[in-house]
UniProtKB/TrEMBL annotation:
It comes from the Bacteria. Keywords: Isomerase. PANTHER family: GLUTAMATE RACEMASE (PTHR21198). SUPFAM superfamilies: Aspartate/glutamate racemase. It comes from Streptomyces bacillaris. This is Glutamate racemase. The keyword Isomerase applies.
Length: 261
């Protein structure tokens, strides 16, 4: 089987690694356009146009499913992507894990880009799934960009600033941008309060990976032979994983397991 993933940049690594854990034998196509990062401040029309270009580059490789591993693209471009590519190519969007986080009860925070924080989209998810829960929306300016470029000092500054806006009593944090999952341990360390129960972080990578398999009628096979290849597309052209991707465990795992085609 062949699974494609798209994002503006390396935020797709978390979902790609999740697919690889479930199906080590799956061929992966990862398509991004890091030169256009970040997408968050762009207009919905611009995001849609760029997402369509990145998605079509992946679709040219004839995958069985396409994961939109980007919250911004899922918010603004998912209807256009599905209209352009389905039913021939199932398209799986990424939704912040607000529903499972709210199911745990107790105070929770949602870390997201400034464009997503307070947006009608996010407020709608909160109203639908977390109406009875104490929710704090936390904007994280610069965090996705710092993660994209492997800027360690920038990551530390952005995480510390967001942690300062996070109430000390929260029991769960929703990672509302796929890039944030790459630094989940650093976020947990910054938010965890001494003497409090362990903080629960809710990302989307595992859920979208499992949904992609369901959409194509496949099941997990984590013990399958690690035979899947990796195809990297940058701005629609063949490439290799950007160097900053190798700063993260997910990027190193992808490169180590499968040769790049």
């Amino acid at each position: 089987m062949k699974i494609a993933l798209m994002d503006s940049g390396i935020g797709l690594l978390a979902a790609a690694a999740a697919v690889r854990r479930l199906r080590p034998d799956a061929e992966l196509v990862v398509s991004s356009d890091p030169g256009s990062m970040p997408w968050g401040p762009r207009t919905p029309e611009d995001v849609t146009a760029r997402a369509l270009a990145v998605a079509r580059a992946a679709a040219d490789h004839r995958p069985d499913a396409l994961i939109v591993a980007c919250n911004t693209a899922s918010v603004h471009a998912l209807p256009a992507l599905r209209a352009a590519l389905e039913p021939a190519l199932p398209v799986i969007g990424t939704v912040p894990a607000i529903k499972p986080a709210a199911a745990g009860g107790g105070p929770m925070a949602i870390w997201a880009t400034p464009a997503t924080t307070g947006s009608p989209y996010q407020r709608g998810l909160i109203a639908e799934f977390a109406g009875d829960v104490d929710v704090t929306e936390v904007p994280c300016p610069g965090l996705a960009d710092a993660i994209e470029h492997g800027d360690e000092a920038g990551i530390d500054r952005a995480v510390a600033a967001a942690a300062a806006l996070t109430p000390p009593g929260v029991q769960a944090v929703v990672l509302g941008c796929t890039h944030y999952e790459l630094v989940a341990d650093r976020i947990r360390a910054a938010v965890q309060q001494p003497g409090r129960p362990p903080l629960v972080l809710h990302g989307s990578a595992g859920a979208v990976a499992a949904q992609a398999l369901r959409r194509i009628g496949a099941g997990p096979a984590p013990t399958a032979a690690p035979s899947g290849t990796l195809t990297v597309l940058l701005g629609g052209r063949p490439g290799t994983l950007p160097q900053p991707a190798l700063a993260y465990a997910e990027g190193r795992a992808l490169q180590a397991v499968a040769p790049t085609r």
